Amino acid sequence: MQIRDYILRRLMVLPILVIGTSIVVFALTRIGGSPVGIYLSHEMTPEEVQQVYERFHLNDPIPVQYYYWASGVLQGDFGWSGISAAPVADVFPKKLAATMELAVASAIVAVGLGLGLGTFAGARRNRWPDHFARIFSISGASLPLFWFAILLLIVFWVGLGWFPIGRSDPDLFARIAHPTGLYTVDALLAGDFEAFIDAIWHLALPAITLGYGATAIIARMMRSSLVEELQEDYVDAARAKGLAERLVLKRHARRNALIPTVTVVGLSFGFLLQGSVVAEIIFQWPGIGRWMASAVLRGDQATMMAFVMFTSVLFLLVNLVVDVFYAYLDRRVTLGA
What we know:
337 residues; 2 strands; mainly alpha; MetI-like fold; two-stranded antiparallel sheet
């Protein structure tokens, strides 16, 4: 099957999967409690409370409620965010921009260090670089995220004062426009180098925290794959031709070792983009994860449903990109249904 046909078939199935997910989550949230609790106050009269219930069609069966909710979503209306006191559709892009910026920075750390360290260790099997990579991988995969985040916070913010928390210096970013919502990109577009450095400085600690765990997983997978590839016959043939070890590693073994690693990289980026609740709370990062945590604690179902819709589409698209890239790296793969 051609890659184009495969992509079209997957895109046709995507809406069905998203609708199925939304139905299940919508039913569970409605069964778990009323969505209007966050909007009610002690000062409201019974008539005003009844108006709120009528607005959300809570007197109707759950399938009817879902119909009205889905109709609103198709029109760009995801409901009202009680924790933000604003429409979900207005708040979500701002939170997404913050999380995306953090996820991209974390992915750069994870992919750059993970592939580099895994390649370095796999090419030096059972030597000290390999042992160091194993220790690094085990520690990164084993350390609790909240503990590592608090440790970095105590050392580099409380103790040394090298890195700030939050997203930016308000004074610096009040003087530039924000067309993209990504502070680093906005600073570059405005030509403000000071604001750009400030954005990078605020990104450092949360990006290292999120990227470290993913770095360990990617490095471990890359190292294992490379060790297997270096034992294949085609590598021996390349060496027998007189190619330098650097070229054998770069042009032959590493490309094939990337094939199983791509899946890990793609899914890791999906989790990073989804946002880590722990890291965003600890470092006071105003992203989707922190917003979602507040929504769950206060029962803001409109915000939770928007989050579910986003993550559903996100992981479906990430899986599609990973499958296509996998087929591109390994020509032996035949894309099926």
